[in-house]
Amino acid sequence: MTLVTPHRTALSVNLNKVALVRNTRHLGIPSVTRAATLCLQAGARGITVHPRPDERHIRHHDVFDLAELMQAWPDREYNIEGNPFHNLMAIARAVKARGLPLHQLTFVPDSEGQFTSDHGWSFPQDAERLRPLMAEARALGVRVSLFMDAEPDQMAGAKAAGADRVELYTEPYAAAWHTPQRDEQLARFRAAGQAALDAGLGLNAGHDLNRDNLTAFLRTVPGVQEVSIGHALMADALELGYAATVADYNRCIDEAFAG
């Protein structure tokens, strides 16, 4: 079993919902770059976007506007997620061609019209088609994280195909939070997280994590390096504001590592 040195999980703020609200009008508000700035100032360790081909929320120019902004935050990370067989790789090439920061690509197996991401990659089925794209990302100097279901027996295959990290799809855990299945789901995610670490993978997590369920998840699942949170965080920000919301999510992370 891999021994993991305790560390503090990084909070990456997903800005898709800011862009979604902005896109309902033609006024440019709320500003995606302003939201990123406020979240970074409040202590977010990274920014995440998912530029879908239909531009339902993040638009092409947002990706570059945010990359330019991230130049002023060299100690923070920029993560772009999406399907590498759609528009993701072209965007990554263009960002890097402009000399802009891009630290991580999160490969997500969603369809173009999918409502939201709801499942992970499968191995060995997806290995051969993903392998050259992960190699290309690494050649660009970008880390690759694969969006994965919490299935321990899938992690070695993800590593063998060339992934640097996996992002555990946490919606089943979040859905079980107020049910008798919560502990069962926590045990499932703990086993998947440990399997990822044993395979030599870095570990991320995301989807429907919130201020209620985040601390317990991080206390239970070993070695989570990053959580990417968007919908719940933005819903909280409508009531609390960006700064107070980011501070409270960081409090949840700190409580997981207290003692």
Please summarize what this structure is.
It contains eleven helices and eight strands. The protein is an alpha/beta fold and 259 residues long.
Helix content: 40-55%
Mean pLDDT: 94
How many domains make up the coordinates? 1
Q: Main β-sheet, in a few words?
A: 8 strands, parallel, barrel
Number of strands: 8
Which consecutive residue ranges, at least 5 long each, have pLDDT under 50? 1-6
> What's the tally of helices?
11
The outline comes out as: globular
Distance between the termini: 23 Å
Q: Please identify the structural class as seen in this structure.
A: alpha/beta
- Based on the coordinates given, report the CATH architecture: Alpha-Beta Barrel
Proportion of residues in extended strands: 15-25%
CATH topology: TIM Barrel
Describe the structure.
Strand 4 (104-107), helix 5 (127-139) and strand 5 (143-148) form a beta-alpha-beta unit. An 8-stranded parallel β-barrel has the order 1-2-3-4-5-6-7-8, surrounded by 7 helices. With 259 residues, the chain is an alpha/beta fold. Helices cover 44% and strands 15% of the residues.
